[in-house]
Amino acid sequence: MRHALRLSVSFLIGFTLSEYFHIAKGEWIVLTILFVLQPSYSETRRRLFQRTVGTLAGVIIGVLIIQLFSFSGQIVLMLASSYLFLIWMKRRYSISVIYVTIFVLCAFNIIANKGVDVMAPRLIDTIIGAIISFVVVRFLWPEWQYKKLPNLLSEAILKNTTYFKAILEEYKKPTTDDLEYRIARREAHRADNALVTAWQNMQLDPQKQQQLKKVAFKLTYLNHALLSYVSALGAHRNQNQQEKLSHQVFEIHILKALEESHHWLITQSNNKIENIEDTLEKISNQLLNTNKEITQIQYILLFNIAEVTLQILEQAKLFKLTSVATKPLK
After folding, report:
1. Comparing C-alpha atoms, which of 252, 267, 265 is closest to residue 191?
2. Mean pLDDT, to the nearest integer, of 56-64?
């Protein structure tokens, strides 16, 4: 909803400026806004840089290259540029902008022999559209990355819990059809990737909006470690039956602790967090003593899962991460 409103306001501003000042090829301002303006500030800033640099490079390269091609050569160049634009669109936007700029230059040169003439308006319109996009996303209902962290962390814990539960089911009743396990694994990795992306995008937010930069890094690292230990536990699910875990009490308690951790991240109940931490500490101590007697890799992984979960909760509580949570618009 926020993005839709920002996009509509940006279109209105761009169109008004184009009509009021009679800007040449003013429709390119609106087109630039459409491609540059993204749902978040960090994504818009990255796309703005790519669009501006790509357009500038496309203008310079296009003007130099077009002098070397005849009419037929320009048609071939135009077709090749349109194809390469589509190829690079999702891979690297800045390169795709270079090709589409060359395409526009060739098209106008073929139609009216004015390809070089429209390059100046294109560059100017691109800069105007980029500035409008930047100003709107910066000041109109900005959505900073640190506000997403609580929801992303709770989602990551939830997906890790589901993944862990699916692994335990595989241990209990091994099946050839492990579709649920693979789905849970994919969702857990997606949630982990979303947390990593939020931390990376936070580097592009204004300095004063990077309030949880350090805790975001720590939580990203810890969640990735948790997912790695859970995945390693799942990798051993197809071992011989006699080599599998002989006790179910540890797994059940860890699963319950993970579920309660997710619930705490949502409800922010201070009393409950103490109970979860006590449970995890007891499990860790019991597993540590067990590891001295039994060297099964599963026990070691369960110990690591319990320890990392405890560290995640300590970080979330220490920095009061949930106090900055904001509910997303629906």
Report:
1. 265
2. 87
